[in-house]
């Protein structure tokens, strides 16, 4: 069997382990269910192409175990289902049918949506379990195991996910090692394929100086960004991300003057004990304002999973983006990542790419098979690599985890984050905030009412007051995105008093 041979003869130990595990799942499934009771959900995507060959190999090994085969298998007896859609790429459609013909797949084409199609199929056929090419990292993989019953509300069947633990790199290592055909779109920069309306080539593979030439999918360095070419479905929060322009939903310009909000969470008992002065929060506030974002809240919580989870849960739905720092590392008190996983209702799972980075840094100190620090929230995590950082930044949906412990480190992480976000069009940089400060000798009582009126006249500005000493002069601050509006507000205030009441404007 050519797949089994290609993997056994290659020198990629990791790929061999993944292959052995995946074909083992197939063999266990074929021992549990009869061949009529299983189906293979095939859609011509890269993951289902891997799965096709894993199933062919697993079936071969299953038969070999029963001593009923010793050579190549001509036909593939597992019923194959394809949900055909007019929104599919023609290349995907033709690859699916061509592949079916080459490998003798008995393909059932279903023209209904997934749920109704499965309901009809299960009524008609004795199917009890369906093989899927779902992988950790797919949004739909959250909470799934290799054997996972279908979700409540779906017809009852077992979802079989032999390649659940495969990374993007594993998929490409397999397809290239086995030299099997895959859909031509992957050679044109597509890295994950949905419908023609929500999928564009991955901009991270764009060849510089050319807006429509892309490198092949297997060259994507960070597999966590394989869905960067898939448009976000419109949701209540944008997550601060700009949907791909070509999807027609929106363009960067429409975001330009809109309001994006951030929250900042500091994790650390030491901050709350007053032993440690938190300089990172104010630094982030300044930086966020400089890109035109509004900071809704800056809070500090104890090093406790529930405290982190509660705060993250609150802030992630309130703000477009949440920045969290402190409590990241191997100590007993480093619970930030676990708290984030809890807030999203997902478990922590080993992340091999992250583990490699950590191994590089801590080397020999890393003992045992599994590095606890390499556990990241499952299915929601992206690693953002930058040449200047020894460890990638971690992004869990709209929560950015910063491992900086002082301002220079934070400065570096912020600069890298901005650079990465800008280059991948994942972050909206808005008009920066501008501000002016007016110093006055007026008392609080004198200025209170006119200022309240001014706030009503200029609802687009933040108008605040502070003083450097209880009995010193009062400073009125004006913050907004339009300098002329600020200047008008200052003039309007000055008109209400004698010119001598104002000491300085800057
Ligand atoms: C055979 C099959 C079984 C599925 N079973 C479930 C299920 O049990 N629960 C569920 O929420 N979605 C189920 N789905 C839907 C998928 O999770 C997912 O929405 C779909 O593959 C679209 O993925 P995409 O957004 O990455 O294109 C199933 C899909 C297929 C093809
Ligand atoms: N239209 C469909 N018909 C049959 N199965 C499908 C269909 N869409 C999705 N699936 C099943 O769900 C799995 C996961 O889909 P997903 O889009 O994440 O992966 P893929 O299409 O194989 O690869 P890619 O991530 O590159 O798009 C597929 O491997 C396949 O088993
Ligand atoms: Mg797909």
TrEMBL record:
It catalyses: FMN + ATP + H(+) = FAD + diphosphate. PANTHER family: FAD SYNTHASE, FAD SYNTHETASE-RELATED FMN ADENYLYLTRANSFERASE. Residues 229-250 are annotated as: Disordered. CDD domains: FAD_synthase. Keywords: ATP-binding, FAD, Flavoprotein, FMN, Nucleotide-binding, Nucleotidyltransferase, Transferase. SUPFAM superfamilies: Adenine nucleotide alpha hydrolases-like (SSF52402), Molybdenum cofactor biosynthesis proteins (SSF53218). GO terms for molecular function: ATP binding; FMN adenylyltransferase activity. The gene is LOC100795114. The keyword Nucleotide-binding applies. This is FAD synthase. Residues 263-424 form the MoaB/Mog domain. Its EC number is 2.7.7.2. InterPro entries: MoaB/Mog-like_dom_sf, MoaB/Mog_dom, PAPS_reduct_dom, Rossmann-like_a/b/a_fold. It is an enzyme of class 2 (transferase). It comes from the Eukaryota. One of its GO terms (biological process) is FAD biosynthetic process. Pfam families: MoCF_biosynth, PAPS_reduct. Pathway: Cofactor biosynthesis; FAD biosynthesis; FAD from FMN: step 1/1. The keyword Nucleotide-binding applies.
């Amino acid at each position: 069997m050519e797949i089994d041979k290609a993997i056994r003869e290659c020198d990629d130990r990791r790929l061999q382990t993944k292959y052995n595990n995946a074909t083992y799942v197939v063999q266990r499934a074929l021992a549990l269910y009869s061949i009529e009771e299983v189906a293979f959900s095939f859609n011509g995507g890269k993951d289902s192409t891997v799965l096709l060959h894993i199933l062919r190999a697993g079936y071969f090994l299953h038969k070999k175990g029963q001593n009923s085969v010793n050579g190549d298998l001509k036909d593939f007896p597992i019923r194959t289902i394809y949900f055909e859609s007019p929104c599919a790429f023609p290349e995907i459609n033709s690859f699916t049918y061509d592949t079916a013909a080459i490998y003798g797949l008995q393909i059932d084409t279903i023209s209904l949506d997934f749920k109704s199609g499965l309901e009809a199929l299960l009524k008609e056929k004795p199917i009890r379990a369906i093989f899927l090419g779902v992988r950790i990292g797919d949004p739909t993989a959250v909470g799934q195991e290799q054997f996972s019953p279908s979700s409540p509300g779906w017809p009852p069947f077992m979802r079989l996910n032999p390649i659940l633990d495969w990374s993007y790199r594993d998929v490409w290592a397999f397809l290239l090692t086995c030299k099997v055909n895959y859909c031509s779109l992957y050679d044109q920069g597509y890295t994950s394929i949905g419908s023609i309306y929500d999928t564009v080539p991955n901009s991270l593979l764009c060849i510089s100086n050319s807006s429509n030439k892309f490198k092949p999918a297997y060259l994507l360095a960070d597999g966590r960004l394989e869905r960067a070419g898939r448009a976000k479905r419109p949701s209540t929060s944008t997550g601060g991300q700009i949907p791909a322009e070509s999807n027609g939903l929106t363009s960067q310009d429409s975001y330009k003057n809109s309001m994006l909000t951030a929250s900042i969470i500091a994790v650390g008992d030491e901050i709350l004990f007053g032993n440690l002065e938190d300089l990172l929060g104010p630094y982030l506030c300044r930086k966020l304002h400089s890109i035109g974002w509004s900071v809704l809240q800056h809070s500090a919580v104890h090093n406790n999973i529930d405290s982190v989870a509660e705060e993250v849960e609150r802030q992630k739905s309130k703000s477009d983006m949440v920045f969290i720092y402190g409590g990241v590392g191997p100590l007993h008190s480093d619970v930030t990542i676990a708290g984030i996983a809890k807030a999203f209702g997902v478990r922590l799972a080993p992340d091999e790419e992250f583990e490699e980075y950590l191994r590089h840094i801590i080397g020999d100190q890393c003992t045992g098979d599994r590095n606890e620090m390499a556990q990241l929230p499952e299915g929601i995590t992206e690693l953002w690599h930058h040449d200047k950082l020894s460890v990638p930044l971690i992004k869990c949906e709209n929560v950015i985890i910063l491992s900086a412990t002082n301002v220079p480190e934070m400065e570096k992480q912020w600069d890298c984050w901005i650079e990465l976000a800008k280059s991948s069009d994942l972050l909206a940089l808005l008009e920066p905030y501008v501000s002016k400060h007016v110093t006055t000798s007026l008392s609080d009582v004198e200025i209170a009412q006119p200022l309240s009126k001014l706030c009503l006249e200029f609802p687009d500005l933040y108008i605040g007051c502070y003083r450097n000493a209880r009995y010193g002069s009062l400073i009125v601050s004006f913050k907004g995105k339009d300098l002329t509006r600020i200047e008008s507000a200052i003039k309007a205030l000055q008109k209400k008093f004698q010119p001598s009441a104002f000491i300085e404007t800057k």
